[in-house]
């Protein structure tokens, strides 16, 4: 039984900052992110996530990476949009954390990489 509605889904995110990811929503409230920018050489990791669903196809997905990077996505699946708020350690900023905000497109894809129109 699925633990949340996005489990088993895959998406492509392209942020206005230039960052681009393939996101795989896995079982046991996990997410695999993989950079799809050539300069990142396929950087990837699996994260334990907190996920909440809101009316209208809106999801909040949050995690903390081993590096201390905190990531929070607000995903609007109906309008294919994502906004991200991240913080990472930087003693030159208030609270010792530097914020980074970006937004972009969010598209579900099928196993063959084509748009997933069943969602």
TrEMBL record:
It comes from Enterococcus dongliensis. InterPro entries: Calycin, MoaF-like. Transmembrane segments: none annotated. It holds the Pfam family MoaF_like. It comes from the Bacteria. Residues 8-92 form the MoaF-like domain. This is MoaF N-terminal domain-containing protein. Signal peptide: none annotated. SUPFAM superfamilies: Lipocalins. Gene3D superfamilies: 2.40.128.20. The lineage of its organism: Bacteria, Bacillati, Bacillota, Bacilli, Lactobacillales.
